[in-house]
């Protein structure tokens, strides 16, 4: 640092003393001769450093771009796999629902078939019961007729008009009483 002394002189701590009124020290002219250049300022060294810097920046940029592309591809693959998994789950769910609907439809069809079979069996049973009741009623009617009508003895050997008319009158009388439920 420079400090001022009392006599108008400057004390230069870095070099010899000089007068304050003396102008600045003359500058030395620097020559740029090839022999005075250092290797760090040589244009070939600077060009090489520039090329290496550009190449290094290029490599770093390409590496970053590739890394980002790889990350994006992995993310896309994960998203695609997740979408495929979701689609598979939806397909399985739809398949289960379709199977349940088919099972319900089959159950309903079986129930309808069972109801039809029961109705058919009930009709068959009713028809059979009606035939039996009809047969039983006819049998009761024949037994009642047999009790009601006794052929006269003279009609046993001869079939005359009087026997036939007597039979018809007896039958009409029997039918009237039968219809009135007098038996």
CA gyration radius, whole angstroms: 67 Å
Strand order of the largest sheet: 1-2-3
Number of strands: 3
Low-confidence stretches: 1-5
Tally of helical segments: 3
Secondary-structure element pattern, one letter each: EEEHHH
Structural description of this entry:
- The protein is mostly helical.
- It has a domain at 149-183.
- It is 71% helix and 5% strand.
- The protein has three helices and three strands.
- The protein has helices at residues 43-148, 153-157, 161-179; strands at residues 2-4, 9-12, 18-19.
- The protein has a three-stranded antiparallel sheet with strand order 1-2-3, with no helix packed on it.
- The model is unreliable at 1-5 (pLDDT under 50).
Considering the chains and any ligands shown, give keywords for the structure.
disordered N terminus, 183 residues, 3 helices
